């Protein structure tokens, strides 16, 4: 299910959206906005998880995972 909403964006942002769609890098304006919102949602969740881990103190298993993740390139996310 999806809900249609109205948002107000600057002319510069709309130009960016239109150029991105025209170049074939995205299927629609909505797809770009949805992807950006999903990235923000995931970033906020990761920040929350990091805060919880920091309050809990060190955990050898999680510390190793964090070191591994920090060294993993994320080029495929862009």
Can you give a write-up of this model?
The protein has 78 residues and is mainly α. The protein contains three helices and no strands.
The average pLDDT value, as a whole number, equals 90
Helix content: 55-70%
Shape: elongated
Distance from N terminus to C terminus (CA atoms, Å) equals 26 Å
List the uncertain runs. Answer: none
Structural class: mainly alpha
Strand fraction equals under 5%
Helical stretch tally = 3
Main sheet: strands, sense, barrel: none
Output the helix-strand order.
HHH
What is the C-alpha radius of gyration, as a whole number of Å? 18 Å
Summary?
This protein has 78 residues and is an all-alpha fold. Helices cover 65% and strands 0% of the residues.
What's the SSE blueprint?
Blueprint: H1 11-22, H2 29-56, H3 60-70
């Amino acid at each position: 299910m999806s809900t249609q909403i109205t948002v107000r964006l600057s002319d510069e942002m709309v130009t960016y959206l239109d150029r991105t769609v025209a170049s074939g890098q995205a299927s629609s304006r909505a797809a770009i906005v949805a992807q950006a919102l999903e990235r923000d949602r995931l970033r906020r969740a990761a920040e929350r998880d990091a805060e919880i881990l920091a309050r809990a103190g060190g955990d050898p298993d999680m510390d190793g995972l964090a070191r591994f993740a920090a060294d993993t390139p994320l080029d495929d996310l862009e």
